Amino acid sequence: MHNRRRSVLLLTAAVLAAPLLTACSGSDSGDVKAAAQGFLDEWTGGHPQAAAEQTSDPSATQALLEQTAKELPDATLAAKPGEVTVHDSTATVAWTATWDLAAAPHWTYTATLDLRKADDGWQVVSVPTIVNPELDAGQHLQLTRTLPDRAAITDATGQPLFTPTEVVNVGVDPSKVSDLPALAAGLSAATGVDAQQITQDVQKAQPNQFVPVITLRRPDFEAIRAQVYDLPGAVFPTETRLLAPTSRFALALLGRVGSATAEVLHETEGEDGTPVYAAGDQLGLSGLQRAYQEQLTGTPGFTVSVVSTDAGTGDTGRQIASVDPTPGTPVQTPLVPAIQNAADAAAATQPLPTHVVVVRPGTGEILAVSSNQAADPGNALRGQFPPGSSMKTMTATALLSAGAVTPDTPVPCPGTTTVEGREFENEDQFDLGTVPLSEAFAQSCNTSFIQLGFSLPDDALNQAAASYGVGSDWKLPIGLFSGTVPADATGTTKAADQIGQGQVLMSPAQMALVAAGIASGTPAAPVEVVGADAAGPAATGPSQQVLDQLRPMMRQVVLTGTAKALAGRGGVYGKTGTAEFGDKTPPDAHGWFVGYQLGGPQGDIAFAVLVEGGQSSSVAVAVADAFLAGLG
């Protein structure tokens, strides 16, 4: 919930609190004020009939008050009586009206109640000015509520990322349907929406109700127009929405804008539970658009006009009050469209769920967050996956930090190794014999790193990972899973952890941050919004000596090792990973490539590629190759 100071429009000076008595007795003044107070209490208490009974024309007054309630929907009135003036059998009572308008600022004005003395006491005279001094016979109020244009979410250069875009709402008018099964089948074939769901939605709808099926950008609709346009019952109203450049553009981070849901309206209520926005408002539904809702949306304004009740007059009304909407302020991201577009194009080359996250070394700025159509976009930032052999960047850090080995140290790389009765193997049980540590790293020799890592203290891998920020409690507008590496694993779990299996879990975003820390030597907290509070303290990073040894090992992976398909890409360093999961025999596996490029077309960048269920790291290397090629 958000605490908002609501604007108050004061049309005249406040009335005096103490009543002024003119040509009357004190008793008359008290009776007049009591009569006015009784009328106002019933009206503000939501009892228009009871209020009307205290006036000279109960029927007309009840109709007036009920009409006002319709004209100011869900508004509540607070009334404060002021100066009382009595002349024999007539009187006036000044009062201040404050309307708490629904999802709009307060509307405050001063008015006057006319009263007359009847046989049974004082009663309010039934005239339109009971409601507002500007209202006359044959007129009614017209409230128009407005939101300001939504403030922009921008890229790293300050250019807006969302622009007004035409969309086509593909849907059904039940009254025009001649063959529902055929219609549902046709729409399903063109849009991919389940035919049974379409059928059920149409059957539940009223005859003239619009039943939405899918909303498409104009080019996407034109691609299926021939399949759907002539289907009896299908209708295609258009509208303009605020959209990112493409439907998948940094979706996990930026989110979407759309018609406000009940959940979003509830979370934006004021502390007293009053609504700030209304159904039909275009609000942020996810991502930064939702996290920065108030800043981007601004606050509503309104106008109130008096308009003739005769629709045939063409009266456009006379404005009697207004409060301008308050514009929001932009939110700047570090996203670079050229990098995002390259990541999107690369991820789209894969039919399997694929993610590419790109980070600026040294700053932690997130430059791109990409997930293809098959993927859950949230997994790019918050997914929890075993990293497989990409974890060897951190295992090597632990080994080099311990000083037990150097890149040139000869190490055995047998096809299999056994820990406490469990056999671990290299891919296809390849056996390199004894090779330098750098070669075991480049060829991703599981057995070498299990044997070496198993000899380290139980918390060594955890500490090495933490030096890159793994396990940090990042405070971000959009959550990022920082990974988990047990500090107390033993036995076969400890062995499996060394090669990114066991109990180790990472997100693509965190693996990109690890690569960025290796590239720069100064790990940084992730940055989603420029100028926002730091997500947390930056990790310390390993020693310069360790980095000087690790970086050439990662270069060798690209030049001669498991990522040699990237050998033609200048300045690229990395580590592949194949991470088994599930209970199949043989098990399924995710494909990873984690790396960085120095001095590339977009400057120094670090990135992580994950292909869910890719079975091999080679698919992730291919996506990385497409991504780097797309950078220019």
Q: Report on the biggest sheet.
A: 5 strands, mixed
How much is the average pLDDT?
93
Quick one: how many beta strands?
Answer: 25
Total of DSSP H or I helical runs spanning 4+ residues: 20
Helical content (DSSP H or I, runs of 4+) = 25-40%
Structural class: alpha+beta
Shape type:
elongated
Percentage of residues in DSSP E strands: 25-35%
Quick overview of this protein structure:
The protein has 632 residues and is α+β, with helices and mostly antiparallel strands.
Give an overview in words.
- The protein is built from 20 helices and 25 strands.
- It is α+β, with helices and mostly antiparallel strands and 632 residues long.
- The strands form eight sheets. Strands 1, 2, 3, 4 and 5 form a five-stranded mixed sheet that branches.
- The longest helix is centred in the first third of the chain and has 19 residues.
- It is elongated, with a radius of gyration of 34 Å.
- The two termini are 45 Å apart.
Features:
632 residues; alpha+beta; 5-stranded mixed β-sheet; 5-stranded antiparallel β-sheet; 25 strands; 30% helix; elongated; disordered N terminus
